[in-house]
């Protein structure tokens, strides 16, 4: 964990002083003052977010150039080209570049340098540091996924950056002070050498959900106050310390809702920050992976219009915010502000960024193409959301085996082991024949570890009822379309299936009344409310991710084993992936007892 840099007045002023003495960008000569009134100047702020370990425009799971149905491209190398074009277009006028977080997790490239050759021990510079340093960011906010690999790796990555990493609401649990730099104030010259300067304050806010999602890494070390209250604390301080323009870089969406319960501050409060905290000019935000080109939110205290924007995900889009400012009676005022969005599929990749990461990219490609087993047939996840499929049973079988073996000889050995898995990917496939690491990684795309808890039969049913809210209600006789069978408000990763019991989900019934059959595996014996089961589950869910009921309990198994690696190890040990070894159809969608599919 980094020190509480920025927590004291002296430290923050030191940051501002350092920025003030940094070399200034040369630009066009200052324009002559207009006789009609104060002269205006312009400032551009470029924003990225949720790059998630994407540098090259590459799909490591398909071992091919990235492409989707909308022909989006991905990667920091593409973003760099757009940034460089805008810098050239502006001919030295001030252009700041910010990122709103979720940077070092999300691709096999990022995973490799966290797990296979971790930067904490290898001496390597993280590929996302290599790429972003070429681009010359001005600041990055820590996203929730920055905490996935533990605080030592995060600290190492931050030390490799050539720019500040911000998180005002990640607070040292022991001291109550910020664990990371809360903000920076950059002294920016608005034109040539004799032009005026403006102080741009940049406040970073991370997501309070870290306390749940990475509880194992941060509990007892960091606490995460709300983003609204943290902004309300620091924005006035930034203004007092000379910030003429205040921009927040926030890793939280603007929906005002949370994927977890009310015990933590709001997960997606950007609109609330804009409404409730005076003194903010603009908010660059992320986390929701949405494309918000330009949205103005009225501050209820001042009536000011706060500019907000979110640049999608993975480097697919670049936000551009343009500000016109003028000095009136010694104070800088924003005259106009607007935002536009640029698409990275319009440009080629920046060769300098590609070169900086080429060796690491190549090593990752070689690694993910390692063959781990042969599959007796093609196994696809395309239907796993609404049908019991062998490929999802593969996950549950491995989790069940591992937990069963670990609990042998303990007081839990006599309890049936159930397993929980979610259809993370609709495109995952194990081809018939060679199965490679990238195929397994494409099925299990998150870096979760395996844990286990004990649930009662009543808790298992409540869990399944909660999961079944994933489906829209379709009365008997209504047409069923797999493309629209799920509630768009519930992501695929928050729909869980359970192995080890047999059950029906009646999608003609209201949410909360859908588990119409829940019996012991291979029988018609109803699961008793008081029955006990060991539940194999990933750490994200067990820590409260998705707000599923009953699962946040003390673990009876937790050896910090990564589930993706357990799947790889099982496949390598067996040599063959054959559904006959693990596929047990145990659940189905019904309407009044009649199967939907």
Automatic annotation (TrEMBL):
Signal peptide: 1-32
Domain spans labelled 5'-Nucleotidase C-terminal: 371-549
Enzyme Commission number: 3.1.3.6, 3.1.4.16
GO molecular-function terms, A-Z: 2',3'-cyclic-nucleotide 2'-phosphodiesterase activity; 3'-nucleotidase activity
Coiled coil: none
Domain Calcineurin-like phosphoesterase span(s) in chain numbering: 44-290
Entry keyword Nucleotide-binding: yes
Superkingdom of origin organism: Bacteria
Enzyme class, UniProt record, top EC level: hydrolase
UniProt keyword annotations, A-Z: Hydrolase, Nucleotide-binding, Signal
Family: Belongs to the 5'-nucleotidase family.
Name this protein carries in UniProt: 2',3'-cyclic-nucleotide 2'-phosphodiesterase/3'-nucleotidase
Organism: Micromonospora purpureochromogenes
């Amino acid at each position: 964990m980094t020190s509480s840099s920025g927590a004291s007045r002296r430290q923050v002023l030191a940051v501002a002083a350092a920025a003030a003495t940094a070399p200034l960008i040369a630009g066009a000569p200052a324009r002559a003052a207009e006789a009609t009134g104060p002269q205006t100047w312009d400032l551009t702020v470029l924003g990225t977010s949720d790059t998630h370990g994407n540098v090259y425009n590459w799909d490591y799971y398909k071992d091919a150039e990235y492409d989707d149905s909308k022909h989006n491209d991905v990667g920091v190398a593409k973003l760099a080209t757009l940034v460089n074009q805008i810098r050239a277009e502006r001919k030295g006028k001030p252009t700041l570049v910010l990122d709103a977080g979720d940077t070092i997790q999300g691709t096999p490239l990022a995973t490799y340098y966290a797990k296979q050759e971790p930067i904490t021990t290898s001496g390597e510079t993280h590929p996302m540091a290599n790429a972003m340093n070429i681009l010359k960011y001005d600041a990055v906010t820590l996203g929730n996924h920055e905490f996935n690999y533990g605080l030592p790796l995060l600290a190492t990555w931050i030390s490799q950056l050539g720019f500040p990493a911000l998180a005002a609401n990640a607070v040292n649990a022991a001291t109550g002070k910020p664990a990371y730099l809360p903000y920076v104030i950059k002294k920016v010259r608005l034109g040539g050498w004799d032009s005026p300067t403006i102080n741009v304050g940049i406040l970073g806010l991370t997501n309070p959900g870290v306390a749940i999602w990475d509880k194992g890494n941060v509990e007892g070390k960091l606490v995460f106050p709300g983003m609204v209250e943290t902004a309300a604390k620091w924005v006035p301080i930034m203004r007092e310390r000379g910030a003429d323009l205040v921009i927040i870089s926030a890793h939280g969406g603007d929906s005002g809702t949370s994927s977890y319960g009310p015990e933590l501050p709001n997960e997606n409060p950007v609109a609330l920050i804009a409404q409730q905290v005076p003194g903010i000019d603009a908010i660059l935000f992320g986390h929701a992976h949405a494309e918000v080109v330009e949205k103005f939110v009225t501050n209820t205290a001042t009536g000011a219009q706060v500019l907000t924007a979110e640049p999608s995900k993975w480097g697919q889009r670049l936000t551009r915010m343009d500000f016109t400012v003028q000095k009136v009676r010694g104070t800088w005022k924003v005259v106009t502000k607007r935002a536009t969005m640029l698409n990275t599929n319009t440009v080629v990749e920046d060769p300098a960024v590609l070169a900086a990461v080429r060796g690491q990219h190549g090593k990752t490609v070689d690694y993910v193409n390692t063959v781990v087993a042969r599959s007796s047939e093609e196994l696809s996840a395309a239907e796993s959301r609404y049908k019991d499929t062998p490929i999802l049973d593969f996950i549950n079988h491995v989790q069940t085996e591992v937990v069963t073996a670990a609990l042998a000889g303990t007081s839990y050995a006599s309890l049936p082991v159930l397993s929980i898995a979610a259809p993370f990917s609709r495109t995952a496939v194990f081809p018939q024949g060679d199965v490679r690491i990238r195929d397994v990684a494409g099925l299990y795309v998150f870096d979760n570890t395996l844990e286990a808890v004990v649930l009662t039969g009543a808790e298992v049913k409540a869990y399944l009822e909660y999961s079944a809210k994933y489906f829209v209600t379709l009365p008997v006789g209504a047409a069923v379309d797999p493309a629209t069978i799920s509630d768009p408000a519930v992501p695929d990763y928050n729909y869980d299936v359970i192995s080890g019991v047999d059950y029906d989900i009646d999608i003609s019934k209201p949410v909360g009344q859908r588990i119409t059959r829940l019996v012991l595996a291979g029988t018609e014996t109803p699961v008793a409310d008081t029955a006990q089961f060991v539940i194999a589950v990933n750490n994200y869910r067990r820590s409260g991710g998705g707000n599923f009921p009953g699962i946040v309990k003390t673990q009876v198994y937790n050896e910090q084993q990564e589930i993706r690696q357990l799947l790889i190890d099982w496949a390598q040990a067996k040599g063959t992936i054959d559904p006959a070894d693990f596929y047990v159809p145990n659940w189905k969608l019904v309407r009044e007892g009649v199967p939907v599919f």
